[in-house]
């Protein structure tokens, strides 16, 4: 009765573990992922690996073990990488294992989400070079505040869309804007003040309002 009441471990109590002895170090295709991080993978022989041969391996250091050449077979494995990666079905991982224990230590071909998280303050710096951030689908920055302090700020974009509650700008020297067309729409009151002002057009100037006060 004591054995029957023992809680099964999702990694060590594999129903077919006895049929899969030996060691494995090589590719494995993800079949299923559980919410608690246990993944079911299909161990692949080297000749069955369809991942690109030049794909980079991102993995923690691991001891060299004999590589399995057995036929593909499903086993349960635990993620054991140096960074947080959320695998999805179809990924090809680098898996190491012996007997009933298997661990994913690298990504050979994947479409899951990788995360880098650190406690406390973090500084990312390129000493003597340029720091570049790029994303094939875009770059997103989220936080309660964003401070930018540079000698020169350059923006090159097809479209720029800004939405905010209030916008305050202060320019100590020249504010120059050149546009093909300009359109300003103010829902309430518009106020412009200057020591002197000049309005110059090459063609027509139109002033339209219910009341016009000059002077």
Question: Tags for this entry?
Answer:
single chain, 215 residues, mainly beta, five-stranded mixed barrel, two-stranded antiparallel sheet, 1 helix, DUF3540, DUF3540 domain-containing protein
Give a structural overview:
The chain is mainly beta and 215 residues long. The protein has a domain at 20-114. Helix content is 2%, strand content 22%. The strands form two sheets. A five-stranded mixed β-barrel has the order 1-2-4-7-6. A two-stranded antiparallel sheet has the order 5-8. A hairpin with a 4-residue loop joins strand 1 and strand 2 (38-43). The protein is elongated, with a radius of gyration of 31 Å. Residues 1-8, 14-21 and 48-70 have low confidence and may be disordered. InterPro entries: DUF3540. This is DUF3540 domain-containing protein.
């Amino acid at each position: 009765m004591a054995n029957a009441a023992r809680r099964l471990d999702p990694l060590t109590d594999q129903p077919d573990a006895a049929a899969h002895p030996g060691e494995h170090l090589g590719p494995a295709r993800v079949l299923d992922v559980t919410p608690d991080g246990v993944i079911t993978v299909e161990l692949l022989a080297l000749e069955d690996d369809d991942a690109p041969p030049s794909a980079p391996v991102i993995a923690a250091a691991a001891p060299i073990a004999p590589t399995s050449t057995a036929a593909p077979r499903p086993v349960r494995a635990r993620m054991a990488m140096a960074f947080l990666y959320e695998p999805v079905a179809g990924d090809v991982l680098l898996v190491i294992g012996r007997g009933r224990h298997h661990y994913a230590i690298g990504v050979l071909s994947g479409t899951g989400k990788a995360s880098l998280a650190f406690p406390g303050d973090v500084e990312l710096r390129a000493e003597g070079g340029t720091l570049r951030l790029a994303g094939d689908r875009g770059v997103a920055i989220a936080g309660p505040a964003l401070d930018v302090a540079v000698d020169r700020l350059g923006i090159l974009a097809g479209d720029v869309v800004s939405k905010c509650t209030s916008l305050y700008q202060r320019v100590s020297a020249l504010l120059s804007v050149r546009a093909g067309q300009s359109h300003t729409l103010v829902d309430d009151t518009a106020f412009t003040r200057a020591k002197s002002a000049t309005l110059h057009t090459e063609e027509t100037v139109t002033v339209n309002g219910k009341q016009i006060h000059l002077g």
